[in-house]
Amino acid sequence: MAAPLLAADRVLFISRTAERAALEVLPRLRPRAVVILNGVPDRPDQPVPPPAGHHPRLGFVSRLSERKAQHVAIAAVDILRRRGRTVELELAGTVYPGNEAYEERLRREVRERDLDELVTFSGYVAPSAAVFDRSDIALSLSTRDALGNVVVEAQLAERPVVAAGVGGHLESIVDGVTGVHVPPGDPEAVADAVDTLLADPVRAREMALAGRRSARELFGINRFAEQVVGLVRELAAQRPRP
C-alpha cells in the first residue's frame, strides 16, 4: 500500500496531523511531504441565528462510533441536567455496517438516563449546516481525526464549537478564541465548556464570529485549489520537456 507514496514526487497531506501520522510509519516520505490544509466549501447562504424559544441545543454531526464519542456527549447532557442546566442534543449520523451495537448502546444510555425528551437521533443529515442551524453549540468529540471537516463546517455555520483537543482539532481551533478544546473522553469537561458558553452569550458570539473568519481563511476552497494547482505547476516545471 505504501509503494505509490514512495514512488510519488510529492505526497499531499490535508493537515499536519495527517503528515505526522504518515511519517511515523514511513519516515522516508519526509523529503516529498507537503501539507496543504483541506478545502471546505463555504455554505451558499449566510449563517442564521439559532432559533429562539427552546432549550439550548447541542449539534453533533458524525458517523456513530465509539471513536467519535457520542456517548460522551450523552453523559455531558446528563451532567448538565443534574446541575440544573437543561440542554437538548441532536445526534446526526448513522453507524457503519457491523457496528449496530454502538447505536444500541447509545439508545440504551439515553433511556437509562431518562433523556428521551432531550436527545434526538436524526440519522444521516446533509448538509451538516441543517443541524448546526438549529443548534446553539456544535460538538466534535472524536478521539482522533486527521482534520475533522465537521468542525470547520460548524465554524462556517457561525456556531461556537466544543471539540476534543486532539488531532486535527488542534489545527482547526485556537482554544478559547475560535472554539474550545476539552480533554478527550471527559464528559465533565464538555459540560463545563457548554455551561460556560451558555452563561456568557457575548463570548460565545465572539467565538462563533472568530471561528467563521478563521475557517474561511485557513480552509477556503479557492485557497486550497490555488495551492494544489501551484504545486502541480511547480512539479511540471521541474520535469524536462520530451
Poorly predicted residue ranges: none
Strand and helix order: HEHEEHEHEHEHEHEHHH
* Largest beta-sheet characterization: 6 strands, parallel
Distance between the termini: 30 Å
Compute the CA-based radius of gyration.
Answer: 20 Å
**Secondary structure: helix percent:** 40-55%
How confident overall, as mean pLDDT? 95
Structural class: alpha/beta
The count of helical stretches stands at 10
In the CATH scheme, the class of the largest domain would be Alpha Beta
Structure description:
The chain is of the alpha/beta class and 242 residues long. It has two domains: 3-39 and 220-238, no CATH class; 57-219, Rossmann fold (3-Layer(aba) Sandwich), CATH 3.40.50. Helices cover 45% and strands 13% of the residues. It is built from ten helices and eight strands. It has helices at residues 3-7, 16-25, 70-82, 100-112, 129-133, 149-156, 169-172, 187-199, 201-219, 221-238; strands spanning 11-13, 33-35, 57-61, 88-92, 119-123, 137-140, 161-164, 180-182. The strands form two sheets. The protein has a six-stranded parallel beta sheet with strand order 5-4-3-6-7-8, sandwiched between helices. Helix 3 runs parallel beside helix 4 (100-112). The longest helix is centred in the C-terminal third of the chain and has 19 residues, at 201-219. The radius of gyration is 20 Å and the shape is globular. The two termini are 30 Å apart. The mean pLDDT is 95.
